[in-house]
Amino acid sequence: MARRGEVFAGPELLEAMVNNGLRYGDMDIFHRHESEDGRGKILFSAANMVVPGTFDLSAMEDFTSPGISMFLSLPIASDSLAAYNLMADTAHGIAEALGGEMKDENRSVMTRQTIEHGRQRVMEYERKRRLAKS
């Protein structure tokens, strides 16, 4: 998210997302694929925080947003924990590039502890999924 009272300008947001491996695609949002060049399965996605959550690439020059929401939809065909870690690193890279802040789903500042809790949730999901297959 942008800092209080600020917004991200479209061109800078677009550059930060692309520089951090996100590619524009399905549903008019950005995705991180297995390969940074946009090939392979989707690992996680990034939507505009403002409803309807989409991006219009042809209007990015005049676009502003208070932030993006990044999400990982489980199950995925790849390593879930590696995808989560990459998503956290990507979010950090984008926030750093734009002078923004990482926030959790409750819009509280995301700490190392919050990120670790997310890792634990992904691991617990995978554990339960393996048990259900048994």
Structure description:
The protein is α+β, with helices and mostly antiparallel strands and 134 residues long. It has a single domain (8-133), classed as Cell Division Protein Zipa, Chain: A (2-Layer Sandwich). Helices cover 38% and strands 17% of the residues. The chain contains three helices and six strands, in the order βαβββββαα. It has helices spanning 10-19, 80-98, 112-133, and strands spanning 8-9, 23-25, 29-33, 42-48, 64-65, 68-71. The strands form two sheets. It has a four-stranded antiparallel beta sheet. Strands 1-5 form a two-stranded antiparallel sheet. A hairpin with an 8-residue loop joins β3 and β4 (42-48). α1 packs antiparallel against α2 (80-98) and α2 runs antiparallel to α3. The N and C termini lie far apart (41 Å). The model has no long low-confidence stretch (mean pLDDT 95).
| Tally of distinct domains | 1
CATH architecture title:
2-Layer Sandwich
Secondary-structure element sequence?
Answer: EHEEEEEHH
Largest sheet: 4 strands, antiparallel
Helix count? Answer: 3
* Overall 3D shape: globular
CA radius of gyration = 15 Å
- Fraction of residues in helices? 25-40%
CATH class: Alpha Beta
Cross-sheet strand order for the largest sheet: 2-3-4-6
CATH superfamily: ZipA, C-terminal FtsZ-binding domain
CATH topology: Cell Division Protein Zipa, Chain: A
Overall pLDDT confidence: 95
Which structural class is indicated by helix and strand composition?
A: alpha+beta
Portion in beta strands: 15-25%
How many runs of DSSP E, i.e. beta strands?
Answer: 6
Ends distance: 41 Å
